[in-house]
Amino acid sequence: MTGQIILVALIIVGVVGRSSIIATAACILLAIKLVHLERFLPGIERRGLELGLLFLTLSVLVPFAAGKIGWKDFSSVLTSWQGILALIGGAAATYINSKGLDLLRIDPQIIVGLVLGSIVGIVVLRGIPVGPLMAAGITAILYKLFQMLSGES
Predict the structure, then answer these.
(1) Cα dihedral sign for 40, 42, 45, 47?
(2) Which long-range contacts (CB under 8 A, 24 or more apart) does 81-85 make?
(3) Angle between helix 111-123 and 2-16 (nearest 10)
(4) How far is residue 20's CA from residue 11's CA, in Å, rounded to a whole number?
(5) In sequence order, what DSSP letters do the residues of the chain get, joined into one string?
(6) Which of 80, 24, 76, 88 is nearest to 52 (CA)?
(7) Structural contact between residues 30 and 36, judged by C-beta atoms closer than 8 angstroms
(8) What mean pLDDT, rounded, does the chain reach?
(9) Is residue 15 within 8 Å of 23, Cβ to Cβ?
(10) pLDDT tens track for 48-93
(11) Does residue 106 contact residue 140 with C-beta atoms inside 8 Å?
(12) Domain segments of the chain: what residues?
């Protein structure tokens, strides 16, 4: 019952905070619980991130498939400072995401803080949720920084 109450609270927060992604995800999970399909939850937990990344990658690659981006665009990326910065930013983001995935594997309970932080970011800072992976990556960097500053190993 506690899980259902939390999901309803997340739906409300998602609606109030204008985050359709959080509201929709919480609605889907609540529906799964209400129709007693909990046996699918471990599979969603195990493969959901991969499926989400698959669909995110598909959406990013659509302009290539649609012919909106061609070889000329590749050369402009390599010859402009904006393109080079985008290349560096993309590489840095994927590295940070990998550190977030490592952190989630080591300490899966951290997801609670990531979700609550994302909700605060959406509602208070009017941010856009990009998912727990980037949030976990930033958390991993902050964790390492905290360890360095506090003298922990």
Answers:
(1) negative
(2) none
(3) 30
(4) 9
(5) -HHHHHHHHHHHHHHHTT-HHHHHHHHHHHHHHHTT-GGGHHHHHHHHHHHHHHHHHHHHHHHHHTTSS-HHHHHHHHHSHHHHHHHHHHHHHHHHHHHHHHHHHH-GGGHHHHHHHHHHHHHTT------HHHHHHHHHHHHHHHHHHHT--
(6) 24
(7) no
(8) 87
(9) yes
(10) 878 887 888 899 899 989 988 888 887 878 888 998 999 999 999 9
(11) no
(12) 94-153
Write the Ramachandran bin of 151: left for phi over 0, alpha for psi from -120 to 50, otherwise beta: left
95-136 confidence digits (pLDDT tens): 998 999 899 888 888 888 888 888 788 778 888 777 778 899
